[in-house]
């Protein structure tokens, strides 16, 4: 990707300059990009913002070695970001047919990732009766370090069971089984209180295993009876197990840092002596 980092400034009055959402997008699998991934994430981590990694796993047909590299890179990203949102390329493939061109497929995959980022941006920028702000999102994310996912559904009628309405091939398998849930409900002019009550009951039933962190709501100044619901689930499981050699690589990194510090100390000591 040409621009792996997307920055969304938070549009709030009297907001400290350091508050913002940083998204780092990365497609795993190329071992030559691992060092730059780690270095760039470290640089971003030093700034006082929410740093969310968007990680896309490669296709399985691209080979075992590329997959193993991506797994290492995924855990690198997870360690350095406040949260990580992952996508499985094999699951994204279910959104297209065999006649779809490579260019069209990549555009579709990118749009889905963009929608996820935009939904989080809108979450803190949409004002309403029960508003969710930057600090709510910050606390929500930092309660459970690791995978989360944001998904928005929109419609005039929710007569169909919610589990089918929110179902998408790219959603994590445990999306409805996360540890923590944040809901933001947008509603148009003609939505009545009974519809609002019913949609809340059904959401609580579907996500019964999750602790409800906060519910926000906002008005959509458009005619009709329509909801726009954003669901953010935290405390999800990693899609793969951590490799046995990953901890060894972390220890190697610590040893390397120690050696660099010792070398710097020796050079400073020599300068003082001279």
Describe the structure.
- Strands 1-2-3-4-5-8-6-7 form an eight-stranded mixed beta sheet, sandwiched between helices.
- The chain has a single domain, classed as 3-Layer(aba) Sandwich (Rossmann fold).
- The chain is globular, with a radius of gyration of 21 Å.
- The chain has eight helices and eight strands, in the order ββαβαβαααβαβαββα.
- Helix 1 links the parallel strand 2 (20-27) and strand 3 (50-57).
- It starts with a strand and ends with a helix.
- The chain has 274 residues and is α/β, with parallel strands linked by helices.
Task: Describe the secondary structure blueprint for this structure.
Blueprint: E1 5-9, E2 20-27, H1 34-45, E3 50-57, H2 64-80, E4 83-88, H3 89-92, H4 102-125, H5 134-143, E5 146-155, H6 162-165, E6 180-187, H7 193-206, E7 211-219, E8 227-234, H8 246-273
Parallel strand pairs: 2-3, 3-4, 4-5, 6-7
Antiparallel strand pairs: 1-2, 5-8, 6-8
Helix pairs in contact: 1-2
InterPro entries: FtsZ/CetZ (IPR045061), Tub_FtsZ_C (IPR008280), Tubulin/FtsZ_GTPase_sf (IPR036525), Tubulin_FtsZ_GTPase (IPR003008)
Organism: Piscibacillus halophilus
Protein name: Cell division protein FtsZ
Q: Briefly, what is this?
A:
With 274 residues, the chain is an alpha/beta fold.
Tally of individual helices: 8
Query: What sequence of helices (H) and strands (E) makes up the elements?
Result: EEHEHEHHHEHEHEEH
Overall radius of gyration? 21 Å
Q: Going by CATH, what is the homologous superfamily?
A: Tubulin/FtsZ, GTPase domain
**Tally of strands:** 8
> CATH first level: which class?
Alpha Beta
* Structural class by sheet pairing and helices: alpha/beta
Which sheet architecture does the biggest sheet show?
8 strands, mixed
The CA-CA distance between the termini, in Å, is 49 Å
| Spatial order of strands in the largest sheet | 1-2-3-4-5-8-6-7
| CATH topology heading | Rossmann fold
Number of spatially distinct domains: 1
CATH architect. name: 3-Layer(aba) Sandwich
Shape: globular
Helix content: 40-55%
Question: What are the low-pLDDT stretches, counting only 5+ consecutive residues below 50?
Answer: 11-17
Q: What oligomeric state do these chains adopt?
A: single chain
